[in-house]
Amino acid sequence: MREEYEERYELMMERIAEISVDAGFPAPYDAYFTEVATFIREAMTLLEEAEQGFLANASIEECEKRQEKFFGKLKEENYGESFLNPSYGVEILGEDLGGMLSMLYADLLSLVAAAYEQRMDLVCIWSELFVQIYGCFVEEMQEQNNPQRLSEESCQWIAKNVKDTIYWFYHDYCEVFTPEPVVHMIDVSYDFLYNNIMFSDLSDNRYLYQFGLPVGENEIGLANYLRRLPEEKIQAMARTFTEGYRKGFEVSGKDLSKKKTVKIEAPLGFERVTREAIKQFKEMGLHTTFVREANLSIYGRGANKRGYYSTSVNRQFDYDHKDDKAYYFDKSFVERRLEVMRDTFEKNKELAAAFGGPAAIEVFGEEPFAPVNKPENAAFTKKQNSLNVYQASESGKIMNTYIPGDEYSFTIIAYPLPAIGEDFEEIFSKTVELNTLDYTLYQKVQQQIIDVLDQGEKVHITGCGDNHTDLVVALHPLENPEKETIFENCVADVNIPVGEVFTSPVLEGTNGVLHVKQVYLGEFCYIDLDITFQDGMIVDYNCANFDTVEENKKYIADNVLHHHETLPMGEFAIGTNTVAYRMARDYQIADKLPILIAEKTGPHFAVGDTCYSHCEEVPMYNADGKEVVARDNSISLLRDRDPAKAYFNCHTDITIPYDELGDITVICHDGRELPIIKEGRFVVPGTEILNEALDEGGK
Known about the structure:
Blueprint: H1 2-21, H2 29-51, H3 60-71, H4 76-79, H5 86-93, H6 98-108, H7 111-116, H8 120-143, H9 152-172, H10 174-177, H11 179-186, H12 192-199, H13 217-228, H14 231-251, E1 261-267, H15 271-283, E2 287-289, E3 308-309, H16 315-320, H17 331-347, H18 349-353, E4 355-364, H19 382-402, E5 411-416, H20 424-434, H21 439-453, E6 456-463, E7 470-474, E8 484-485, E9 488-490, E10 500-503, E11 506-521, E12 524-534, E13 537-542, H22 549-559, E14 569-575, H23 578-586, H24 595-598, E15 603-608, E16 627-628, E17 651-655, E18 661-668, E19 673-678, E20 681-682, H25 689-695
Parallel strand pairs: 1-2, 1-3, 1-4, 4-5, 8-16
Antiparallel strand pairs: 6-7, 6-18, 7-11, 9-10, 10-14, 11-12, 12-13, 14-15, 15-17, 18-19, 19-20
Helix pairs in contact: 1-2, 1-8, 2-8, 5-6, 8-9, 14-15, 17-19, 23-25
């Protein structure tokens, strides 16, 4: 591949060097092209240094200088006057060009990772795009005899040509970009990240800078802390993680022996644990794969932290650019991308069949982020939102064809970041304890709750104080209570830590209002989140993050509904992990917990698909031998006759914490009312132990 690009690359080096010295344009365009060309030139130098082996021997000081050079403009103190900021781009370059050129610059940041991976091909094609766009300006400048100022007509002509150039670049190179995350997920021959994890000297923080990711205080703090832990503790942490993955196959009756690969998703700085997990998975007969976090608009850059990732330099930057593909996103692009995706899976169908699913390590502890909405940011049209939904649905079907849901599993666990504050080490230790709570104790206690829930036809949930939740959730009927159950008894397998019972509600008859005073969903904070359900479907929603109802509704539509007009309630659960709740209150970190832990600290309601999405036909049994029969709802049942309407390809849990909770009451067919929780405390006989943590007075 290198030989194919060498000549083109040499031409680009010369052209980029010329532009970086003098773009040859009148202000303000000269500033943009000079800055971005300088960035590309430095990325080319980085590539050469990587090829020559210089990077591995760089001092910490040299590594830090490189970090500042490539990621410094993202820092809050610099971002306001950076072309990476769409608002600044529009202010300086104009409405027609500023947003697009900011999007291009944001995608060009991917050159840092490409250089570390010695991907001359990627550095070359991105440089060619930049030079093409530069050429749009040169052509018009020459046409106008090099004026001192471009006219409005000239700017509009350039903007049209820039947009066309960007459009065709992403369409033409779809066959390059689309296969990469698929192949990296299932093929162990992509080993850049694997080799860095397995063979780096983890005793020296210089290794952190070899991944091509931003390195900040969180990454350094994690590596330093884990380095001090005894080996047996590292092994135990990894064992909790890998055993959760194994148990996921076991409890769902899936055959792990058919699988050969597992994808690890993990944060930079966690390499001691990740390395040990790789070894333990190998003992199970599984080789590990890694996919880099999304660093291009085509992959949904900025939407979330998945893959192999580091914490954000600036979450507002992520938010500003999360919809950047709106500049080139249309039906033709979607169909081409789906075609390439399907072809990639078909060419690699044996590798896909042997893929077992992801094992993910999440992190938490950063301050809750409430983004600023900017009119200059790229935004999807209504038609594009429909295409997003269509693409997600079709992608899900392709994935399920080659990696069937009934043969696939996962696990997920979370740990705190140093950003959580001065109690980081205490909280980390508490989280380790949390992740290893007594499996059998919770299984027994939760069964007492399920025995009551199985008597009901619906459940009434209310808030207390300022929380005005008032919801009635309809339950699946039981034909044979001796052998069937409505709720799954969920302990620490795929979702660590322990602590919930959950079901797929009957949509018809599920009505009311869900309210949470503050909740952190994914990367974003929601204040006074209100969602109204009618027959299980969302009919209204609002929050108090922004000044106008329109902004608040758009925030929820984009990030909770994921551009769908409505979503069903896909899950109703009662979290039982009061130890997690106590930890959150003792250290005042409730607003920083990931949903993985937060969902265990009260009742929660997922909007989107059920927990059994694409696996509805697979029997699921609790430890008592009863089959969990509530795996479907009236939406998922459409999969046989109208599969496009059966799945939404999203699932977002929203939790009411115990201190905002009033009562949870089971309403039976004969009119009996059986309380599960009353005034925020568990009242089912056999569950009293759960109240101990709720009633403790602090750490």
